[in-house]
Amino acid sequence: MAHGHSIRIRLISAFIALCAAIVLFRLYFLQVVRGDIYFERADKQYVNTNTTPYDRGEIYFETKDGQLSPAAMTRSGFTLALNPSLVKEPEKTFTILKQYIDLDRAEFLNKVDKKDDPYEEIAHKLNAETADKIKALNLPGIILAHEKWRYYPGERLAAQAVGFVSYSNNELAGRYGLERYYEDILKKDPSKIYSNFFAELFSDLEKTIEGNSQGDLLVSIEPSVELYLEKKLEEIRNTWSSDTAGGIIINPQNGEIYAFSHNPAFNLNEFHLEKNPAVFSNPLVENVFEMGSIIKALTLAAGLDLGAVSATTTYYDAGCITLNKKEICNYDLRSRGTVNMQEVLNQSLNTGAAFVALKTGNEKFAEYMKNFGIGVETGIDLPNETKGLISNLDSKREIEIATASYGQGIAMTPIETARALSVLANGGALITPHFVKRINFDNGLFKKMSYASDKQVINKETSEEITRMLVNVVDKALAGGKAKMPGYSIAAKTGTAQMSDEGRRGYVEGKYLHSFFGYFPAYNPKFLIFLYHTYPKGVRYASETLTEPFMDITKFLINYYEIPPDR
After folding, report:
1. Axis crossing angle, helix 362-371 with helix 350-360, rounded to the nearest 10
2. Which of 241, 266, 408, 414 could form a disulfide linkage to 537, CB 3.0–4.6 angstroms apart?
């Protein structure tokens, strides 16, 4: 009997201990993890019922040291409103309020005249100091209510990537960028907020443990790197009067994006003032371009990987060749005679790229280009991604394959291009470009995002060989060899492509897209930089417009990340 009694005591004690642990866990969860929710709920008891509850998960950039920098957050303040029927002296009330906030007299008096409406808002986003001063006046009919709104500390920083929140058909939601793509994560659903603190103590424990879909985003954009890229894009446009400019800085090993910008951009906090809403779209994922000679690096990689050519393979460059009764030429129409494949890259020879593609064969060349991810979406975590236009790769005619080999006749998005070029840098694998590294859920749990590279496009040895050839381009050909950096191996290639006008066939004389890509340290790269700008004025070649910006960004990254010399 004594033994049985002892067992019962132990069981009861264990049960009590378990209950106590559950209570402590829930208290921690409700008071610490979700304490802000309860503070807000209590606060709303004192807020005018006409105000709309608003809450949303936050977006954070991550600095190189792992510090979080807010990119999108929710701010609190006050709405100033009035009850027209209670405002007895409109002119006097206006004069007094005008001392504290900027008001339009006609608009104010018009709202006072709406006697049948008990609530008219006259100002938003007042800070606590101003609200306290107005509250102390105790003006008849004047109402102060708490409000929240979306705020972007970086203003223009990574605007197209971050996106913004706005109304559409009376629904407030993310409309562009990460704000839209991760709407299900960022949006706080009021129906999931429980109404009784003590009831929650023992309810929904399973959901607490398993997690839910609401939370904050930690993204890979490094704010200082992003700021520097944006500065350089602004300089490019100002220097060359370009229509647009864009850039991507990505880790070619794992697809993390450090910087991502398009110019012109806009202020996320003042998007409603923007006269041209087209600026909200994201050409880096939504628009396609013929990229020009940077595609020659992919063409050479395909030929090397198949064994159709080697770096020392030679061909006779006549300056122009005729295929299917159409002539294609080098950019300067000049013949170089017998040259090898290294010179095809160094001198950017269109006839040499065509030679490689034809040696590779139409079908195999097209297969390689598609395996590089050209013509398919990358899977980047942004809305409205489109895919490249590559119908020419399926042509049986040699002329379409030849022009595709040097980046004309096929078009791709900038992010699609950056992913394809990353294959050359990382040992041959196709990566998934992405921003979000981690989701911190509201219940205290988190999810680290995983983006595995599951497709090998070229052999590692091919990646090393094309890298060696691209390093040779920088060391000996780019800016006549003056771009070479002592102590650092840099692989790079420029591209100049003719452009067409929308709705018109053929190319426009004198209208070009300039592109540039490079990665470093070349044989174990941490960064791949891709730059482009459209329709620069008074200049023809990308080597003239983008070499210096690329090298400036490279030097900045080397210094900022303290990258040691590799040679």
Report:
1. 100
2. 241
b/e per residue, 90-100, with b = 16+ CB within 10 A?
A: beebbeebeeb
Per-residue pLDDT at 18: 66
pLDDT of the residue at 354: 98
Reading the block at residue 28, the tokens are 């921690």
| Residues whose CB falls within 8 Å of the CB of residue 253, separated by 6 or more in sequence, listed in order | 425, 426, 431, 525, 526
Do the beta carbons of residue 283 and residue 177 sit within 8 Å? no
Q: List the CATH number of the domain containing 307.
A: 3.40.710.10
Tell me: do 365 and 377 sit in the same domain.
Answer: yes
Distances (CA, A) of 358 to 2, 300, 338: 93, 11, 17
Domain that holds residue 384: 223-560
Question: Which DSSP state fits 507?
Answer: P
Q: How far is Cα 310 from Cα 296, in angstroms, rounded to an integer? A: 14
315: left (phi over 0), alpha (psi -120 to 50) or beta: beta
Residue 196 confidence (pLDDT) above 50: no
* Gap between the Cα atoms of 274 and 280, Å rounded: 9
Structure letter (DSSP) for residue 408: -
**CA-CA distance, 472 to 489, in Å (whole number)?**
9
Residue 197 has pLDDT above 50, yes or no: no
**Is position 39 within any domain?**
no
Domain CATH for 181: 3.90.1310.10
Helix axes 362-371, 295-306, angle to 10 degrees: 120
Could you tell me whether strands 314-317 and 215-219 are parallel, antiparallel, or unpaired per DSSP bridges? Answer: unpaired
How many helices and strands (H and E) does the chain possess? 21, 18
Q: What is the mean pLDDT of the chain?
A: 89
For residue 455, how many other CB atoms are within 10 A of its CB?
13
Q: What is the mean pLDDT of residues 450-470?
A: 94
User: Which residues lie closer than 8 Å to 72 by C-beta, 6 or more apart?
Assistant: 58, 59, 150, 151, 152, 162, 178, 179, 268
pTM (two decimals): 0.86
Q: 353 or 194: whose pLDDT is higher?
A: 353
Are the C-beta atoms of residues 82 and 101 closer than 8 Å to each other?
A: no
Query: Do 355 and 398 share a domain, yes or no?
Result: yes
Alpha-carbon distances, residue 31 vs 188, 217, 562 (angstroms): 18, 22, 42
Reported as a pLDDT band with limits 50, 70 and 90, residue 55 is confident
Helices (H), 314-437: 341-346, 350-360, 362-371, 398-405, 414-425
Report how many domains make up the chain. Answer: 2
The torsion of the CA quartet 149, 256, 376, 462, rounded to 10 degrees, works out to: 170
CA 414/CA 483 separation, integer angstroms: 24
- Give the end of a domain, one of 199, 219, 239: 219
**C-alpha 243: how far from chain center:** 21
